[in-house]
Design goal:
Elements lengths: L1 E2 L1 H11 L9 E5 L15 E6 L1 E5 L2 E8 L7 E9 L9 E12 L5 E8 L2
Antiparallel strand pairs: 1-7, 2-3, 2-6, 4-5, 5-8, 6-7
Length: 118
């Protein structure tokens, strides 16, 4: 997982009370491009879903599920945490890649993105 430069800036803004736009969605894409702190979007975004968020001590966990009808026919490889549910908009806080998942109409996938304060 890479925390983006924009994500770091937004966290600092929260700490001083200047930014109410918290992460509220997870985007899923098809690119295996290596994550970088300068990333501002996914390279192959195909869907974006609202998240449920929980906290445990210093860990924030964001979760969403793609049901059997979503993103069918794609090879999923990347995830991003955003503060907008509108595709291709908002600020990306983190980006990560993962082992390819072939998404068919027989597959439901739950995604989880954790952020820990160290």
């Amino acid at each position: 997982m890479v925390v983006t430069d924009t994500g770091k800036q937004k966290i600092v803004e929260w700490l001083i009370g200047n930014n109410p736009n918290h992460p509220n969605s997870i985007a899923i894409g098809t690119s295996s491009q290596t994550p970088s702190e300068t990333d501002s979007s996914l390279y192959g975004e195909i869907t974006r879903s609202s998240v449920s968020a929980t906290q445990s001590n210093e860990i924030a966990t964001f979760e969403t599920t793609l049901d059997t009808t979503q993103a069918t026919g794609n090879y999923l490889r990347e995830i991003g945490l955003f503060n907008s549910t509108n595709p291709t908009s908002g600020d990306m806080f983190v980006r990560n890649t993962f082992a390819e998942i072939e998404k068919t109409n027989n597959v439901e996938v739950q995604f989880e993105q954790r952020m820990e304060v160290e």
